[in-house]
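Re: the 385-residue chain
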Amino acid sequence: MSGVRIVRVANFVTGRSGGLRTALRHLGEGYLAAGHEPVLVIPGERYADTRQPWGRVVTLPGPVLPGSGGYRLLTDRRRLAGVLADLAPDRLEVSDRSTLRWTGRWARAHGVPSVMVSHESLTGLLGQWRLPGAPARRVADRLNRETLHHYDRVVCTTRWAAEEFDRLAGPPVDLVPLGVDLTTFHPDRADPVLRERYADHTEVLLVHCARLSVEKRPELAVAALARLRRAGVPAVLVMVGDGPLRATLARRAAGLPVHFAGFLPDRAAIAALLASADVVLAPGPVETFGLAGLEALASGTPVVANAASALPEVIGPGGLAAYGTPSAIAAAVVRLLERPEVARRSAARHRAEEFGWPAAVAGFLRAHGVAPVPADAATEAPGPP
């Protein structure tokens, strides 16, 4: 018995992208540990072929998506098809059902079993692009029917993402929640010195950890802080991340205690900040699995999430859902702070402990129809040519 080569293709991945990059890394590490060979194909500035702890990574040149803050796309179909043919995958896994949906047809033509991973709600994304509800649903339904037709399996990471497939007449999707690194993100990472850099013992430390881009609605965090301050709550806000809205947000935050920490490449530094915060804000209405929110819970910090997103399903009793308005978010923060600190932090950590990467890896491998390879049968995967 030997492992299989699982080629994964993804867009919207950069050195500074968050949840998707984290998921791809952990799943790749899990595939390797299970005796399989993961190969990740992503867009970048130039061609590269490297070996990482999570498997081989092939980078193909791709243009920057305007207004996205640096995201690139795999737009050269001929070149990507050639790379896929050279890689000769045993399984194909795709994380972009917009511009990469055509790869399902390629896989079927070459006899390769394929899986599409739905990380988002197309209906929700189209709504963010200001397409009205009924037209957005019709467009999403058409695209999702094509996805179901061209791929052997569809994996959704939340019930929220699966709902738009459930309303179609088609095969059921696989529901596989993602995981969280419960060691890196832990309440013991709390750092009083770090906390004092932003807030003293009389103040409430709020953290927003996400790209500063339109779909994340970071302006809601700033506006919620303003509401809290007007209500007499001595809150301060740290914005972790970067993106195209940073300059606009800085202008909106003028006169408010908002600290822009920028992109933090050190996962331990992020973990320390999350564990030191009182509440983490996740106001994005189209958040999918919301790994940053789950990392906050693992750090023992409750989360206020947008009720329209998938996060309420994920955070459960570890936080609160609020409608996407500054007043609702501010009110949810106050309700969380009214809970005893030990109780709210314990509830957050216990909820995160229900999610682990080993279970996520096992679920993805089931969707691929493969099992872990016994240790004595596994062979070392070859490196890049």
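The longest helix spans residues 133-150.
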